[in-house]
Amino acid sequence: MIDLITRKRVFVQIDKDKIPYIKVNKRYEEEHMAKILTLKHGVLYEWQWPDDEWSKGGGAIYVFGRLADPVKLQIVLDEISLY
């Protein structure tokens, strides 16, 4: 998946509690993400607004949960095209 604002590849990251997540730069991507992740791939997630400067531009965090496999998530993300 390519972030619509930065035009860079989105990578699965792991937080301090070993929970996979991704950051994207625009809220409007959430509508597409829900259709693609949940309906097409069966991936559940929680959407969050971060509490930092980055979020003021409309950024969002998708948290996948401790049991999610980050390698499989990255494969799914790499198949997503939001253009």
What this model shows, in words?
There is one protein chain. By secondary structure, the protein is of the alpha+beta class. It has one domain (13-79). Helices cover 27% and strands 17% of the residues. The chain has helices at residues 29-40, 70-79; strands at 13-14, 20-24, 46-48, 60-63. It has a four-stranded antiparallel beta sheet, with no helix packed on it. A hairpin with a 5-residue loop joins strand 1 (13-14) and strand 2. The chain is globular and about 30 Å long. The protein starts with 12 loop residues before the first strand and ends with a helix.
Quick rundown:
The chain has 83 residues and is an alpha+beta fold. Helices cover 27% and strands 17% of the residues. Strands 1-2-4-3 form a four-stranded antiparallel sheet, with no helix packed on it.
Q: What's the shape?
A: globular
Residues in helices, as a percent range = 25-40%
Query: What is the arithmetic mean of pLDDT?
Result: 84
The DSSP helix count reads 2
End-to-end Cα distance: 10 Å
Main β-sheet, in a few words?
4 strands, antiparallel
Total tally of structural domains = 1
Written as H for each helix and E for each strand, in order along the chain, the element string is: EEHEEH
Number of strands: 4
Poorly predicted parts? none
Structural class: alpha+beta
**Largest sheet: spatial strand order:** 1-2-4-3
- Strand composition percent: 15-25%
Radius of gyration: 12 Å
